[in-house]
Amino acid sequence: MTAGYNFAFLDEGSKRAVRRAIIKAVAVPGYQVPFGSRELPIGRGWGTGGIQITLSVVGPSDVLKVIDQGSDDSVNAVSIRSFVAACTGVETTTDSEAATLIQTRHRIPEVPLRNGQILILQVPLPEPLRLVEPLESVTRRMHAEMDYAPIWLALYENIVRLGEIELSADYPVMVENRYIMMPSPIPRFDNPKLHMSPALHLFGAGREKKIYALPPYTEVRSLDFEDYPFRAEDMSGRVCHLCGAEHVFLDEFFDAAGGAKLYQCSDSGYCEKRRKGGAVDGSRG
């Protein structure tokens, strides 16, 4: 732990304020709770909401994993992991099964989460109604009245123009048949992982100053129509060229030397564990 800094960098009053917002968010799943976003040594828009949640809930006995679009080795993931470890001294890992706290940007791990784990998602745009209504005062009233007709209309117009709902990420969901929520820019492949998950999911938007949550075993349904049901990306027929995994979210590459497409697990920790021969309980690969 870095000398001269408070445990987890933030002062205790700030951490209590964030935790109070988290408790409110857990009590009302899918509801966006305003909070006083603190200054951090990182620009807003680069994950400060998720970082503030992590710093507020982390304890000395936690094991931390940080991923960015599935990777443990990206600049964002490495920087955040190093920062949290430096000001807490907690153990870090690339194994999602060993982690108690997982901070993520744009992905949910492939191995199903378990009870007792906390998944913390960085959120750039928390308001699902922002694309149809620019005023915060109006969107708050629309949520209170469950006036979600404009977002349903936007999805219908998407079908009319393109023949299907073509949202590849940040696909809106209905939480407990009450609030429409943005799941952060995860691919829609990850949306079904939110439904009845035994883990606690916390969402932090630092720039927008909002926190919301999905408690364990919460009903989460991706928005769709009876004649245009929700569908995730189809990964059938694709195999990770490193570990041989199938039916997981795969990134596509072009092999210039071989002149062919290659597929690789987006979840680098999952891929590494498979290559080492480690058992991956509950995997779909």
Give short descriptive properties of this protein.
285 residues, alpha/beta, Rossmann fold, 2 domains, 7-stranded mixed beta sheet, 3-stranded antiparallel beta sheet, 12 strands, 18% strand
**Subunit organisation of the chains:** single chain
Q: Into which percentage range does the β-strand content fall?
A: 15-25%
* General shape: globular
Structural class: alpha/beta
The total count of strands amounts to 12
Name the strands of the widest sheet in spatial order.
1-9-8-5-4-2-3
Instruction: Give the radius of gyration.
Output: 19 Å
CATH class of the largest domain: Alpha Beta
What count of domains describes the coordinates? 2
Proportion in helices: 10-25%
State the major sheet: 7 strands, mixed
User: Which fold does the CATH topology of the largest domain refer to?
Assistant: Rossmann fold
Number of helices: 6
Low-confidence stretches: none
Distance between the termini: 38 Å
By CATH, the superfamily of the largest domain comes out as Bacterial phosphonate metabolism protein PhnH
Order of helices and strands: HEHEHEEEHHEEEEEEEH
The CATH architecture classification of the largest domain is 3-Layer(aba) Sandwich
- The overall pLDDT, averaged over residues, is 93
